[in-house]
Task: structure prediction
Amino acid sequence: MLTSNSKDKERSLSFLCCWYLGRRRVAMLLLLSLAFVVFVLGSYTINKESSNSPNIHQSIETIEFGINQTPLSRELSSFYTGDSNNDQTTRGSDVDIIHPPPSLPSHHPCDSFSFPPPPPPGLRRPGPRPCPVCYLSPEEALVHMPKHPFESPVLKNLTFIHEESPVKHEEGQGGSEFGGYPSLEDRTNSFDIKESMTVHCGFVKGTKPGHQTGFDIDEDILHEMDQFHEVIVASAIFGKYDLIQEPVNISEMARKNIPFYMFVDEETHSYLKNTSSYTEDSKKVGLWRIIVAHNVPYTDARRNGKIPKLLLHRLFPNVKYSIWVDAKLQLVVDPYQILERFLWRTNSSLAISKHYRRFDVFVEAEANKAARKYDNASIDYQVEFYKKEGLTPYTDAKLPITSDVPEGCTIIREHIPITNLFTCVWFNEVDRFTSRDQLSFAVARDKIREKVDWSINMFLDCERRNFVKQVYHRDVLMNMKPPRASSSKVLPEPLPLPRGKSVGGRANTGKKSPGQRGKRRHRKVSAGGRNMR
Result:
């Protein structure tokens, strides 16, 4: 039997247990109540932020081009909601000049974008491919257009040398009448950055670029080129070297407000009239407005192509932004999206992609010689000249510069004095030495950077491949064999012959003939596997 003391102890323990369990239930109820309050407040905050921020779908898939495939940036929800009268436009002579609304979101919708992890080591990559790029929609991109021009460091006023009878100043000097034969002293002075400068920049003869200067353009088109445009896209074909590629995925806003100009020589112009939808009335092929250049200054078609590529600011004196695309490329992303991604978002005035493999000028020169891109002696002379000036192989000491070699088939830039000077001196190097502009890019860039705080946005080449699709040059396409016609009728496999039976007069022994022994069949490499320019 339990004593009275034992019963008292048992009652005390029971009371303590009940009290402890009761406290735990109360604590759990309090915690659940607190969690519910936090959930309600959090949902309210998230909904409030979502109502003020655009939704964005990141383009994180790796895009591989097939015959009819193009990279499509996913549609992003627009900043423009409600009445379309919020768009502020001014009517120009030929185009609606769009001014972006004054307000910008507090954060950029692509801030959280990141590249997917690289493939596991050991997986073979069959060559350069496009990589993911986070674009805004064209409407959203326009919102981010800067209200004011990029600040041109030091240089504020740039003018150009005019000379009706240019002459060579040095024995054996390269260059041309079109470029004005700048002397070595002129070359040195062009890199001495001052507030006001006058430099050689092509078109030294005549009253204005395109009028009796060489690279002459019809008067009615010159008048059109003098008009103001916020953005233009430009390309060129000389010597029938390429086929016109129609841009795709271009917004209606861009189609209405951004002109696409294609420069051609007379030879290419004649070819277009016989092989495309071009007519003299429209002077267009698709989106491209065809501009015929007469009296081109060089016999080398590729060197003639460097004139519009590097001197667009001289041909279009009243343009704010330009996108240059080599004719071997098809533009597959809207120009507003490209400008926002590579200029406005990075606060840059000029953007160009790095070469996908090479980043050293000396290595690039050897590659050009091996591929017979230009006369080897001329390449050696140019590289030795730069070497004597102090050019050294690329090393990490040049960081944050990550490459000395561009993939120069696209140039995205704002037309301001410092970028105009850069493309002028870059053109002068191309005019004096070889037309391989990858060899002279770093020299022109670094000599300017020695004097002023200015940089170029050299983005990844895989990002370039996201907004342009590379096609073959015309001569490669013309020499391609037509695809083998497929037969709907499937023939049965022939029965194997027994050993010793003759096939075409020869015995089948099951062994390789002496002439076949040790041979391997190699996969034929497509002509498009190498970048050809």
In short: The chain has 15 helices and 16 strands. The CA atoms of residues 398 and 404 lie 9 Å apart.
